[in-house]
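Researcher: Before we compare anything, I want clean individual predictions. No alignment, no superposition, just each chain on its own. First chain goes here; please echo the sequence and then give the structure tokens.
Model: Echoing the first chain and its structure:
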Amino acid sequence: MSDLELEERFKKRLEEKFGGDISESTIQRRRRLWLTVKPERLVDLMRFLRDEMGFDHLATITGMDLGENLAAFYHTTDQHNIITVRARPPRATPVLPTVRDVFPGTESYERELEDLFGIKIEGLPAGRHYPLPDDFPAGQHPLRKDWKLTDAYPEPAVKEAK
């Protein structure tokens, strides 16, 4: 019996269910599986993880700038194993669906993706910015690799702040 038999079963079950909608799946180590899903299948996969596989807790969502694409990493757990689901919307049109209906506590994480990375979360109700202040310059996303402080605050304002 392989040390990674459980992880192999998780991987096989997800690949059988979602087929070509999963572009990558990797067993990182014992109790850790990473996979990449097409953004339009994200909600279905998250619901399947919760309802059919017992991954009923979304620990966090992490954003990342990968250059050509942006990414959101959804870290789910069944309290013993972790499956991280990556969704990579293109940088030019970064849109992901909300997973609030599957995991109700995700609103602050999804607002972070919008504020810090500029990933539009479809279905997220209008609300305050988080974590940026409401008066932060529109269209500025400080965790993108190409963002500069002077994009949000022109040089004179930066010099005055010193």
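Researcher: Okay. Second chain, same rules.
Model: Second chain and its structure:
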Amino acid sequence: MNRAQFVVKGHPAPKGSRVFLGGSASKESSDNCKPWVEAIAMSCLGQRPKGIGLLEPPYEVGLRFVMPRPAGPKYDWPSADGDLDKLARAVLDGLTQGGLIVDDRHVVQLDCSKEFAGPGKQTGVSIVIL
């Protein structure tokens, strides 16, 4: 039984790559990461079971990313918008920031995939938490 299932529309952004600015300062290499994580966190608000704040661990999480198709893709599969593990990291951080899960360290199973958006299909991520 799914404890939460929802879609976050938008352009998925990876998390984890850092650009060092000098000294101890650094920033995410993707300017789109912060707004993407915030969009996921905001989407969590409507997913909490009534009367319950956080879903209790452990978590089995399924993520299906739908990526924009570039004009002339090099491959028949998405490879330009971030590594799958870094895309997943951004979503898990958003689920934690959104108060749906306690912490992503309690994820015991992670099933991820990414595909190009087809005609009439919007980019984003489908999230299922068991």
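Researcher: What stands out in the second chain?
Model: The chain has one domain: 4-129. Additionally, The radius of gyration is 15 Å.
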